[in-house]
Fold each of these.
Amino acid sequence: MASKQMLAVAAAVALAVLLPACAAATEHMVGDDNGWILGFDYAAWAATKQFRVGDTLVFRYKSTNHTVVEVGGADFNACNKPANANEWSSGEDRVALGKEGRRWFFCGVGDHCAKNMKLKITVLAAGASAPEAPPSPPPPSSPAGKVQARVAHAVAAVTAAAAAMLAL
Ligand SMILES: [Cu+2]
């Protein structure tokens, strides 16, 4: 019986560990149906999304009108396009989000960045939920842990007493 219980516990633990990793990677169409355009609030758009390692950003736009440049945070704020910056211009650019952290993009055409055609995102660990940590069992020092320890001690004492009585 004990081994069956342990198997059940092991299965539950394995599920808890594996399920988030199985969550499908998401393709984020930047701006949703609007695509990558002038006059859209990409900060507000990004605030409604969760970006995770393994996801993909898709920038869709008219390739004669816009581009996508990836820069660092300082260049993002200054709308500065360094000579060695990554710039995409296909009109349907797919950007893999391969690791956790910040990513900064803007349109490299004319003054579009200054007109707020820019996107800043934070990539979270795969399967992670943004603000909430997974629930963890109470540590032994917590009240709940102490109660559990006391119950265990009481059970052990009763068992020992019963054993002693049987031995008589
Ligand atoms: Cu543009």
Note: The chain is about 35% helix and 20% strand.
Amino acid sequence: MVNATTMNLSNKKNAYGFVSKFFHWIMAVMPIGAWLMGNFHGDVGSWKRTFIIAHYTLGIIVFILVGFRLVWRFKNITPKPVKKTNGSTLFPTVFLHFFTPSCF
Ligand code: HEM
């Protein structure tokens, strides 16, 4: 199990650190949340106002995080790419990173 003292915050030559992984996943989840709330706020009755406010909030936080993420990107080394990706991970990777954002 990883604990706070052994966890690598920064990237290493062969692996992304905790902060890069955090940015990666938070920026996968938040835009999807913003998209859902933007699209479906009309279908949630009395929750509409909450959905719209949450939508703006998520969208603005994502925008701010892009700035922090860029700073972190240029202050860190980029780990070497994995040599070979097998078919079972290649398809979801390409699909999720190129097709999903194009839906927004
Ligand atoms: C990750 C960021 C965001 C995503 C993925 C996103 C996505 C969406 C989607 C899918 C819709 C529905 C569009 C439609 O019905 O055709 C929408 C509507 C809207 N979004 Fe966003 N949005 C984001 C950020 C923002 C931000 C930062 C603001 C403003 C502060 C904003 C303001 C609005 C407004 C005003 C609407 C129309 C709401 C209505 O129908 O009354 N969005 N958004």
Note: The first helix runs from residue 18 to 40.
